[in-house]
Design brief:
Number of helices: 24
Structural class: mainly alpha
Number of domains: 2
Number of strands: 0
Order of helices and strands: HHHHHHHHHHHHHHHHHHHHHHHH
């Protein structure tokens, strides 16, 4: 009966540990998740920067799986190159060492109660009293998770101690090390956390339930176990998702096999050359040496490895959209980031289409390298206006479908931002449709022999190009714009519309225009105004915060 109770206690410790990890991961995703993503985007220009970024973000978020899934989405969307995405995941392997060192140094060599109990008290206190304040609430979740993590570790440690007293583990010491390697893999595969496997192994090693070589084999097995989650997430996904998932799996398999083959000289290095006496520290040192050596060895091979992955895994993309096809709704925060990128790219192409109707090609609108790369893949510039319009309609449909799937997984400011982005897409398409509707009018006016019609057309065209230039600068700056500034832009568009109409009516009698000429220009002027208004409303959602965007909606925008 006592054995059964201790097994239950061990399982309870594992459950508490997993729950604590989930609490910490969720709270840290909220507290620093966006900053971590922006940080990764900034430092991934070079391979070394990507490795350092992956290590740093994983050390903070305490989840290599979360970082890997984030990268899986972003690499597919083109935010990271495949090479740098693999480098980030290499760095994530280093970042996971932080939790191992924390467990080895604090979890067994200090009084756990001094760490755990105050953290649980503060976390619970903050959750109860400040539940309505999201920042403090998430901090409470983190502290609660931090405390429960060590309490779970304590459960595992005491359960192991009791098992050692009542059960003879010595007869298992003669088992081949590859058995322990497989056990480490299976445990990690089941719980999807190498940290749990490390905690269990440290507990078993601490009380003498396993030998040091067996503990090393257990931890080595966990190296590959964590990659299966990424592989499963890539099933049914895009080609690039498969490339990154298999690339990660193969790297960890090779690292595990090489380390296992060299386990004797590595143990000699740790125990005799470095002369580390504490078995817990020695175990984490082993893991550190293996991971650091693996990364250093693999850096020069990254480029040919990427070429190999691209050669082996080929195929066409399934979606007209470029970013959201790689999103995973299980990670709504990353999905939201990709949705933002998609709507910004969609807005860009709607502007390209609209200026193309005027037969205007502006270098200042096409200076975003990432958009140029994506448009080159889609052969966007080679398409006819009709084909471009059909493609934009298809992408808007995918955006709308993705919005409906994602909205139930978000709340608060994230949901408001999602609503802004889908509103931007709708307004972008509204502007595009209005420009499509006046293509024949533009052709009529641009080829007219009547000076009034031609002059007013050229003036309207120049004003529209000026507007788009100004809006594109707002978008490129990637900063929130002052509400009054955007309102001034809108007022100018409205003023241009009224001024063009007034001038046309004043000069129409003298120019001897017929009824068709009158209808053509009035229709052109009205639809162009509608298109420009809609484009401002689309940009408004991208550059104003939620409160300002709502206020801007009160500006009368439907004068015709």
């Amino acid at each position: 009966m006592e054995v059964f109770l201790q097994i239950v206690k061990l399982l309870a410790g594992v459950g508490l540990f997993l729950f604590a990890m989930q609490q910490m991961e969720t709270s840290l995703k909220f507290l620093v998740g966006r900053k971590a993503k922006l940080f990764l985007q900034k430092v991934t220009k070079t391979t070394l920067g990507a490795i350092a970024g992956g290590a740093g973000v994983t050390a903070v978020l305490q989840s290599s799986s979360m970082v890997s899934l984030m990268v899986l989405a972003f690499v597919g969307a083109g935010v990271f190159s495949l090479k740098n995405a693999l480098a980030i995941i290499l760095g994530a392997n280093i970042g996971t060492l932080v939790s191992g060192w924390m467990l080895a140094t604090l979890g067994f060599n200090t009084n756990i109660e001094l760490l755990a109990h105050p953290a649980v008290f503060m976390g619970g206190f903050m959750l109860i009293l400040f539940n309505h304040r999201e920042q403090i609430k998430q901090t409470g979740h983190f502290l609660l998770g931090f405390g429960l993590l060590f309490i779970g570790l304590s459960f595992m440690k005491t359960a192991m101690e009791s098992q050692v007293q009542q059960f003879d583990f010595s007869k298992y010491e003669a088992m081949p090390l590859y058995v322990f390697l497989g056990i480490g893999f299976i445990i990690t595969l089941l719980v999807q956390s190498s940290s749990v496997t490390t905690a269990l192994t440290l507990s078993a090693l601490h009380v003498g339930a396993v030998s040091f070589p067996a503990a090393v084999a257990l931890v080595l097995g966990s190296e590959t176990g964590t990659t299966i989650k990424i592989v499963l997430s890539s099933i049914g996904g895009s080609v690039v998702k498969k490339q990154i998932a298999i690339g990660n799996l193969v790297f960890n398999l090779i690292l595990t096999l090489i380390a296992f083959v060299l386990i004797s000289p590595l143990l000699n290095l740790i125990l005799h050359i470095l002369n580390i006496q504490d078995p817990l520290i020695a175990l984490i040192t082993f893991s550190t040496v293996v991971n650091l050596s693996g990364v250093l060895f693999f850096i020069p091979l990254l480029h040919p490895y990427v070429k190999f992955l691209k050669l082996v895994f080929k195929g066409a993309e399934k979606s007209a959209a470029s970013y959201i096809q790689h999103a995973d709704l299980k990670d709504p925060q990353t999905a939201l980031e990709l949705f933002k990128l998609e709507t910004a790219y969609f807005l860009h192409n709607c502007m390209v289409y609209s200026l193309g109707v005027f037969e205007v090609k502006c270098d200042w609108l096409n200076n975003v390298a990432e958009y140029n790369r994506l448009n080159e893949i889609k052969k966007f510039e080679e398409k006819t206006d009709s084909e471009k319009y059909d493609l934009l309609k298809l992408i808007q449909g995918e955006l709308q479908a993705f919005y409906l799937a994602l909205k139930d997984k978000l709340n608060g400011k994230d949901l408001q931002k999602l609503d802004q982005m889908v509103s931007s897409a709708r307004s972008s398409m509204h502007a595009t449709k209005s420009m499509k509707d006046i293509k024949n009018d533009i052709m009529n006016l641009s080829q007219s022999s009547k000076n009034l019609k031609y002059a007013l057309f050229i003036k309207s065209k120049e004003e529209t190009v000026e507007l788009y230039r100004y809006l594109s600068l707002m978008l490129e700056n990637n900063q929130e714009v002052d509400y009054q500034e955007l309102k001034r832009v809108f007022n100018k568009v409205e003023s241009n519309f009224m001024k063009a109409l007034t001038e046309f009516y004043a000069e129409a009698k003298q120019a001897q225009l017929n009824e068709l000429d009158l209808t053509t220009f009035i229709n052109f002027n009205r639809e162009l105004f509608t298109a420009n208004k809609a484009m401002i409303m689309a940009v408004k959602e991208q550059v104003l915060n939620t409160e300002q965007a709502i206020t801007f909606n009160e500006v009368p925008v439907y004068k015709t």
